[in-house]
Structure formats: C-alpha cells, structure tokens
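Chain X:
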Amino acid sequence: MQRSEQPGDNEHALRREAGAYLHSHPAILELCRKFAEKYRSLGRWGGSVSLAGLAPEERAELAAFLRQAPEGSRLSFEALCRAWSKTRFGSLSLPRVVAEVQPDYLQTKKEAASIREQSWRSEVLTVYRAYPEGKAGRWLEAILLGHFRWHETGAEAVSALRLTALALASLPVGKRYERLPFFANRLCGQPHALDENTEAGKLFCRALSYLGGGRLSPSQAEARTELLYEAHILRDDLLNQVTVYGLRAFMQMEEPAGGWCERLYWRQAAQDMAPLNVPLREITRADVFCPWEKGSECNARLLETGKAADAGWPCYIVENAGVFSALLDELQERGLRKPLICLHGQPKTASWALLDRLTDSGARIYYSGDYDPEGLSIADKVLMRCPGSRLWHMGTSEYGQTGEKIPVRRLSQLQGLQDQALRELAVRLRECGTAFYQESLLGALLEDLLA
C-alpha cells in the first residue's frame, strides 16, 4: 500500500528547493554568506553588510529579489528577511536554510575557539599522562593551568607538543652533553627536528625558557644557545669560543673508571705562555680550573678529596681583545702566567660556561670593561652571574671624560643595572654623556697583574 505524504515530507522538500534557489541566485547567496560571517563574529543574526563591488547583473538580481532597487550602499539583515518572507519559501526560517546550505559558516568564532581549546587541552592531557614527572611534567602542567600560553593549532602544533615533551623528558643526565642534531635524531630519527626554524624547535626553547624562570628569552640567537647549553644540549660548540691564558683544567672521568685527569693541552699552552682560543665543546669537557702555579696542588687535592686545591684565587677578565693582547705582551715578556681571559665583547655561551666553572673552582673574578652602556651592562651580567666577583678598575674615581658623546638611545640601556657601584657609575655617565675606554686604564690593569 502506498505511504501517504506527511507534512514533514513537504517541509523537507521545500527546504531542498530553497537551497537550490539560493544556489541559483549567486548574488543573494553571497549576501547570506556575508551575514553568516556577521553571525560568527556577533554570535547572533543581525547587522548590515556592504553592497559595494556588486556587478550590474548582481544588482539587478538583488533588485528583483527585494522588489525594489536597494537603497544606499548597505543592506540590513532585517530587509533581507522581509524580502525572503515574500517568496514561496517564506514559511521557512532564512537562518535555518543558510545553515543547511553553508553549515561551516554558522559556528561562531567563540564556539570555534572553544572547540579548539577543548581539543588542545585534551591533547595536552594525553601527553601529560605519558610524562607526568620531571621537567616535561612541570611544563605540561603549566599549560593545563594556563601559566604557559601557546597559540598554535593543528597537526603541526600537536606534533611539536609531543616532541617537546619527549625532549624535556630525555635531556642528557649528569655531566654529559649532546649536540642538538644528534639529540633530535636520537628522539625521532630526524636531526633537524628541533632546529630553530621548526615549530618544535621554537616550542622546545620556549619551554626551556619557562622552566628556567624566563631569565633568557628564546627570541635571541645567543640566548637560545645558552638555554640549550643549560639543558646540556650544544647548538654551536666550535665557533662559540673564549680566549684564555695561564689556566690548567681537569676533568672528572665517568664511571666505572672514575677519578680525575688533567686536560694536557691546557697545561701545555700555559707552559708555553701561549693564549688558547677555547670553543664551547672543550670548555664542557673540563670541570675544574686552577692557576698555572697551583696545578700540582690542585691535582693532588682532586685525587684525594674531589675538590679544588684553593679558593679565592684571582682570575682577571677583560672585554676587549686589544687590551688582552697588550696585557699578554707584558706577561709573556716577564715570563708570568697569570690567569687572564678575554670575552670579546658580549659574553657568549662559551664565556658563561667558563665563568661558571671558574667560580665553582674557587676563582674570584675581576672584571674590567669599557665605560659605556654596553660595557656596564656586560659587567653587571658578570657580577650577577658569578658570586664574589668584583669590578676591576671600573669605579667612578677612575672614570675620565673623553670627547666621544654617547647617543641618548644608548644611555637608556643603563636603566636595568643591578649592581650598586655600576648604578652610581651610570649616573656619572648620564651627567657627562661621554664614554671612557679600557685602553686608558692599561697601566693600572698591568700593575695589578705584575704585582
């Protein structure tokens, strides 16, 4: 027996015809799409849209639909609905018809963001269950609590999240260091997976920065290198170097052999009174340093107690290579092997790696730099990083005026200094507005070294 037609069947057929009608009238369909975009932003139907850009035939089509030429340059949603109600589809809700024709347009931006947030949170929870402890766990927990924000979405973001969590859970342990390409290759078989131009590489450095208290910003190349170094990952371990003189170095052997051994090329360079350009990779292979003349005592003490032989021994550091060379000339001429280091401007990761080890080895750092905003900034970083370090002929009484004016934009760098003596010196620099350089203090520096 033939089934009788139901009222619902008639409405369904009418909705199909209404959809076909919109598709056959592109000017009206485009207006509906524009109002759907409005809905995504407002969360409700309403407002008005521009009629600019309509071709003559589209304006004619719209005029026929409205039963009059459109007035002005905009059309309200209310006017569109009034015209719709006068068609044979007037019993149907226009928003509902649009929803069936263009379903993707009917999700508000707030709803879409909420769905993405829920999906992302679910993904983070899944990864957190795999890595609930250690650095990975702390970082993932920070994401869940909203303390760490990352606004990327999609498959690449999820892949970066998983790889970063794996990397944080797989960092080298103990005193071992690993180069970045080999670390990445060990994790996922791709040596460039954590490069700085990848999503995972960016997220990994941001995570390390967060876990380190935000002290270093991963937006700068040298800061990224130091972030990785502090996690025992080496990014640039050959070109990143520092120049040293008069130091001996010792390395603790790994188990099962254990014990200590001296890095012989450091001793040979000091014995020959030769400066040594040491890359980061070699600095990380040394654990304890001492002055040349304390080498035998240090070696014996290390073998006996595992501690350096002395504490409070002076180590002199200059910023400028020219000053370093001038001081070195005098030391070599007199046959002296005083610990002397050149940072070559702004400290690089190799500089910090050496300074950290020197401080741990009992060295008292004496730092000398230029009397300009950059020089004071470097000095402040050294004093804050190395406990017990001191300024070396960088006081207000030694500051002399020159004819070189410091631009105002550079003077603004003096605002963040933390050391009190440097803050007082910064006041003088602002008052006088001129720079003063290490070369002018060569005699005083040399007198200390020769004492």
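Chain Y:
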Amino acid sequence: MPKVKLPRKSTIVDMTAMCDVAFLLLSFFILATKQKPPEVLTITPPNSISAKVAPEDAIIITLTKDGRTFLMLGDDAKKAEILDNLNSTKGLQLSPAEMAKWKKQQFYGMPLNQTKGLLAMSSPPSPDKMPGIPTDTTNNEMTDWMRSVTNVYAGGDQSKLQEKLLVKGDNDALYPSFKNIKAAFKKNEIYKFRIVTNGTPVPVGSELYNSSKAL
C-alpha cells in the first residue's frame, strides 16, 4: 500500500492575546500598588517580633538619634484641615498661597515661627538641615500639632485615631526626647499610640514560639 502523507500544519502560535493580558495585568499592578511613604531621614528602629501592618494614612512622628523630631501626615484630606486649624489657632497668618504651598510638603520639621521664612524659599531645605519640631520642656510644639490633630478628628472614633498615631524612633535616641513626645500626647488626652519597630522572627523555644506551634 502507498504511504499516506499527513498534511503539515503550521506551528506558529499567535501571542497577541497573551501579550494583551500581560500588559493589562502590569498596568493594573502599577496603578493599584501604593508606594512606600518616603522616609524623612534614615533611622534604625528597635527590633520586635510584632507583625502588625501600619495604616496607609498614618500620622508618623520620626525621632532621630540626635533628638530631632519630624511629622508626616498621611491622610491628605485631614492634612489640609490640620494645617488650617494650626494656622488659625497659632495665629501664623499664612496667606492662601502660602497655605497651598505648605500643604504640598510631605513632612514637617521646622519651628512654627520659621514657617513663613521656609515657605518664602524656592525649595525647602533637606531634612538633614532642618532643626526639627521643638519638643523640649520649655517649648514643646508637638503639643500644638497634636492639638490640631485632635481638633480635626474630634467627634469621631478616637480608637481609630490612636491606630494612626505611629512613633518611629531611632534605637539610639535618648529617652527624654521620647518622653517629650509622650507628654505632647498626654496633654491632648491621647493615651495610646504605636511604636514602629523592625520585625524579627520569634525566638525558637520561647513561650510565644511554642504557643504558636501548638495552634
């Protein structure tokens, strides 16, 4: 019998649809992913085994090893209200143009009496050249910032505000600087906040390790 010849078929695969799906997924992740908030200065927080995730709209107080304090307001809508309240209660007399420029800043680390001079600059100084928000016992301006924060969040669930309040201190920062931040909270009847730490694994053989393995 004669040998039957099977027709040859093309092995070319059309990848157009696959490429379309890949680019759609890539576009989705680029648009949906929230970037990590910029750090004011590089610091080394203490270690802990806590694994809680910080909220995206957190109010972060950064304490450097040399005792300087910076503030970052994560919620843009509340941020504008906090700055308006601070301008009003402290009598800063900032113009609408100055307020608009102030609200665009990512963090704050200057005494309030230097705000006008800062906003008059073409660009703000780098964090390493800023003196930080005064938090000493004679002039603790963090109290004023926290008062405006509590004024804006008044009437809401205070437990949610406490979850937003984060203190990120360098491991080498002295305790008196941290104590002054606590004093600013206390004067505004804020008794709970969270401390940012570097996460570390649970020590093997510890009580927490054994209890987690038993679950």
